[in-house]
């Protein structure tokens, strides 16, 4: 949804539909998802646990579980070949041409060689499960470089030390010889980021990268990712349930519920002018120090069981503003602006006029004033 025509679209997820076979039956986890991402942008995918955020991005990386069936859709990834090796910069190569691949049509071997780690890299939420406890930090950073680019072990080691310094780890040479359990949680997450950056990817996917960390370390990790993104010009996708994180990092936001994108827009549109009742609920549930109410808002009910799909809008049972049609027909994506769309019947011309809750409107006004005082966009 970028307005910058000079930027190339590098990822285009079109009408993605995925079902998982389980012992209890088929789970329709992803239902017609569309996401696009341009060079250098930060896109957030936000929603409650089980909404399909991680599954969508695992599909983009070609690492879906064996019990997954892709019913339909395309995942087009566009890239320029880094044929000149690990330090090759296609921006400086006038002859470099764009190539594209539908990830869903490529075999696992091709994806592992050309995409995973090399052009798309993922930072997972718990570094202890993504780091090998039996291998030194140094070995885990250099193995991807050697496998993808066949570079000399000595050069790979030198590069690994530089990466550790880049992600803010002091005494990098000493850390190279250590094991994951010898590092703090924040340092382990920095190591995971160093591994993700080791092969110069064009796209970094961050799956709840700060969930297991305390607040101070969270802020440092987010700043680190922003710094690296700016220096390298890479695109970043954040998968998160935390709108506080989204406010700090994102250019565009995709709000996901029950396997569907229900609202998409730029950061100001989602935070200052949300249109979907689910987005209203997520924003209302953020902790707010500016209110006298000591209660924390929660969205009523629970996310639906995707083993048993219901007619109409999946959010209707939890929606205080649901209309009769919500139980019969699924809402289409209604256009609000060129960059802002929402799947709610409340935007239909025939629907009664419903404003967002008064408390949320007051909160948004406080957010605007705070942003203006800080000189930030949000």
From TrEMBL:
Phosphoprotein as UniProt keyword: no
Subcellular localization(s) per the UniProt record: Cell membrane
Gene Ontology biological process: peptide transport
Chief location: membrane
Single GO term (MF): ATP hydrolysis activity
Keywords: ATP-binding, Cell membrane, Membrane, Nucleotide-binding, Transport
One CC-aspect GO term: plasma membrane
One family name in Pfam for this protein: ABC_tran
Family label: Belongs to the ABC transporter superfamily.
Name of the molecule in the record: Oligopeptide transport system ATP-binding protein
């Amino acid at each position: 949804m970028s307005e910058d025509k000079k930027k190339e679209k590098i990822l285009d997820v079109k009408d993605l539909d995925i079902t998982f076979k389980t012992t209890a039956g088929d789970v329709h986890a992803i239902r017609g998802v569309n996401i696009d991402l341009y060079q250098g942008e930060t896109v957030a995918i936000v929603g409650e646990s089980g909404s399909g955020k991680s599954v969508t991005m695992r599909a983009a990386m070609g690492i879906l579980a064996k019990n997954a069936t892709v019913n339909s859709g395309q995942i087009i990834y566009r890239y320029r070949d880094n044929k000149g090796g690990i330090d090759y910069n296609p921006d400086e190569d006038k002859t470099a041409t764009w190539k594209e691949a539908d990830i869903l049509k490529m075999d696992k071997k091709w994806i592992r060689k050309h995409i995973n780690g090399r052009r798309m890299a993922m930072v997972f939420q718990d570094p202890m499960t993504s780091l090998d406890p039996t291998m030194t930090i140094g070995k885990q950073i250099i193995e991807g470089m050697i496998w993808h680019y066949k570079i000399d072990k000595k050069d790979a080691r030198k590069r690994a030390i530089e990466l550790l310094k880049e992600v803010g780890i002091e005494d990098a040479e000493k850390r190279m010889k250590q094991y994951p359990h010898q590092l703090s949680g924040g340092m382990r997450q920095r190591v995971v980021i160093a591994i993700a950056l080791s092969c110069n990817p064009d796209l970094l996917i961050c799956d709840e990268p700060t969930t297991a960390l305390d607040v101070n370390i969270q802020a440092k990790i987010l700043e680190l990712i922003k710094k690296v993104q700016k220096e390298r010009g890479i695109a970043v996708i954040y998968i998160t349930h935390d709108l506080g994180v989204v406010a700090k990092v994102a250019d565009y936001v995709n709000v996901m519920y029950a396997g569907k994108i229900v609202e998409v827009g730029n950061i100001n549109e989602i935070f200052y002018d949300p249109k979907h009742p689910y987005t209203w609920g997520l924003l209302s549930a953020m902790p707010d120090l500016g209110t006298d109410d000591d209660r924390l808002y929660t969205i009523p009910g629970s996310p639906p069981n995707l083993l048993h799909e219901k007619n109409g809008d999946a959010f209707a049972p939890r929606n205080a503003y649901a209309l009769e049609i919500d139980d019969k027909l699924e809402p289409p994506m209604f256009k609000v602006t060129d960059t802002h769309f929402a799947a709610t019947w409340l935007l239909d011309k025939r629907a009664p006029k419903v404003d967002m809750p008064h408390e949320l409107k007051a909160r948004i006004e406080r957010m605007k004033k705070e942003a203006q005082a800080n000189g930030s966009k949000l």
